[in-house]
Structure formats: structure tokens, C-alpha cells
UniProtKB/TrEMBL annotation:
GO cellular component: transcription elongation factor complex
Gene Ontology annotations of biological process type: nucleosome organization; transcription elongation-coupled chromatin remodeling
Keyword Nucleus found: yes
Phylogenetic lineage: Eukaryota, Metazoa, Ecdysozoa, Arthropoda, Hexapoda
Region (Disordered): 229-260
Encoding gene (name): Spt6
Family in the record: Belongs to the SPT6 family.
Protein name: Spt6
Feature: compositional bias, Basic and acidic residues: 229-241, 249-259
Principal subcellular localization: nucleus
Amino acid sequence: ETYEWARKMAVDALEYDDDEGANPAGALEEILEAPERLKDLDLDAFAEELERQGFGNKSITLYDIRAELNSRYKDLRTPFRSANPEELFDMLTKETPETFYLGKMVTATVIGIARRKPQGEQLDQANPVRNDETGLWQCPFCLKNDFPELSDVWNHFDAGSCPGQATGVKLRLDNGISGYIYIKNISDKGVANPEERVGVGQLIHCRIMKIDVERFSVDCTSKSSDLLDKNHEWRPPRDPYYDTEQEEKDTRAEQELKKNKQRQTYIKRVIVHPSFH
């Protein structure tokens, strides 16, 4: 039925009079040569007339007809655009910049210790250390310290058994994203062997320092100073109308309340009793 509407639109656009005996098919061919004439048509009024005649609301159909006459066979859908790395990250992780951002405090599971195996020159310059208390030798790279003889340490190197020096802690966040804490960011105090501080399967609290959307990974810190963030270096910026004075008052009130709870509250009494000395 819409073919007749297309012909009617062509006749109206060319402003043919009824007494001219216009050929609708010829008008359609003519309008295809000059589709800009269709811009002057009042399609909304045409749609209202069709609705009065019992055809229903055909407004969308009429606009589709005009679009087709303007550009035949054109795909009117929005051109395909590949998602950028940020959009892919948000789609696959179900996160948004509002829910996953730099400085966010997260809980992560330790899944391993990252190490760097020593290379040839490093092995040649290795200097194993003997513990005077136990009499055992220690590997300077992996810090394994139960070698009875110095030769056992060199055999440890030659056999390729040394996993190498620890460089950081590998994590898995609750949302499935991989995380990493460089050894310098594990603690405010120096850490030589991360295995002395964390273990596989352990849950730890940390803050996000860097987000790599292409690798689906984050760098984190578990330093106490970063977790406390007293200087607000990691937390989201405050609202310009944030009441800093009220915050300071509340903080002082909380500190005073803690001090009062810590004080021993007792009443000194003098007990007079023959059995009490």
C-alpha cells in the first residue's frame, strides 16, 4: 500500500494540479532526479490525513519513504565504529569510571610472587652469604637459606632452580582484573622477601595506582601511608562545597571520645571492715 503513498508524495512535491492529469509513475521518476523537492513536503499533515482515513499512524513510514527517495538503497543505520580500549574495558569488566578509578580502595587476593631469573653475568658475580648462627648458605637472589655448602648454592644456579629475585606481588581483584604490587609499594618499610609479608590466597587491602585498560590490569599499593591517605593524595577530589571546618570538628570530637573511653573510670572508696585490710 505504501507504493501509492510514495507516488502521492512525488506528485505533491512537484506541485502538479489535479486537472493536469499527472502521471504518478512519471512523477516518481522525475522526483528521483531532483529529490531535494521533497524537503518542502509537510509529512506530519500527510500522516494525520492517513490516520483520519483509518490507516493508523504512518508518520515513521512516510519519513522512511522520503529518506529512500533522497538516497536510494542507502543504509541509514549509524556507521559501525569499533569500541576503543576504554569502552571495551568497561563492557567486559562491568565497571565504569565512577566505580573503578585511581585511588580506589580495593580488596585483592594474592595469587603469586613475581620474580626475575638471574642471567649469566649476574650469576657470575653472585656472592652467596653464610649465616654465622646456622652455618647455612643463602642464595642472594631467591634468598633461599638452607644450603649446607657453598657448592650447593652454585649447583642451585647451574641447575636453573633459582626462581630469581622477587619483584612484586601478583593479585586478582574481586572483579577478575589482574593486579600487581611492585616490591617498593608493599610496605613503607623496605621489603626484601614478599613471602615474609604475604602468602598465596591471602586477602589484602590496597589502592589502585594505575589502570592499564589494554592489558586489563592495575598497579596497586599496600603501603600503610597510602591506605590511610591522610593528605588526600589518592581519594577523589572533594566537592567545592565540602565543609572542611565541620570535618575537623567531627574529627576532634571523635578523638576526644576515644580518649574519654580509654580513661579508667572508677570511684575511690574507703572500706571499713574488720576482714578488709
